Amino acid sequence: MDPWVLINAAWYKGLTVEIGNTDAEGRVILADALAEAATDEPALLIDCATLTGAARVALGPELPAMFTPDDDLARDLVDLGTSIGDPLWRLPLWKPYRRLIDGKVADLNNAPDSPFAGAITAALFLAEFAAPVEHWAHIDLMAWNTESRPGRPEGGEAMSMRAIYAVIEQRFTR
Fold first, then answer.
1. R_g (Cα) of the chain, nearest Å
2. Would you kindly state where each structural domain of the chain is located, as residue ranges?
3. 4-172: CATH architecture
4. DSSP H/E element including 139
5. Is the dihedral of CA 139, 3, 128, 124 positive or negative?
6. For residue range 8-64, what is the model confidence (pLDDT) as tens digits?
7. Which run of H or of E encompasses 155?
8. From the CB of residue 4, how many other CB atoms can be counted at a distance below 10 Å?
9. Which of 170, 144, 173, 143 lies closest to 72 in space, CA to CA?
10. Dist. CA 169–CA 164, nearest whole Å
């Protein structure tokens, strides 16, 4: 089956995106949002999405995966999140896997054929559109409690929001 191409799906960046998996359409829309946000040259850009099942397979439903090329931002998100009970775990933007999202007929493929590193390749796809923002992070989260725990009832959960707020407060208030 030949993949179809969404021409200028990320027109802010002038890239074409090959749709290798129509179930991964959310990352194409998020890519456009990141590219648009990057045009404003923000001091901090953080996106959150229930983007991949691969992150849940790797870390479970209670620990969101976080990707960033910025070591200081990663440290702040992990440390502040841990200190306030809103943990995150950094996974790598492993550059050697970037080849997996190269398109055959377009610049990029939204979801490679490989069954491996799904959360990482999704984050690498998004990184193409967040650049050149220096302080960017992607958080892949479930945002759902599968069971009730003290202070965290079963159902929708505001995962990572407290950690993100703590980082914003630390960096931008005096």
1. 16
2. 4-172
3. 3-Layer(aba) Sandwich (3.40)
4. strand 136-140
5. positive
6. 445 567 888 998 888 888 999 999 999 999 999 999 999 999 889 899 999 988 899
7. strand 155-156
8. 12
9. 170
10. 9
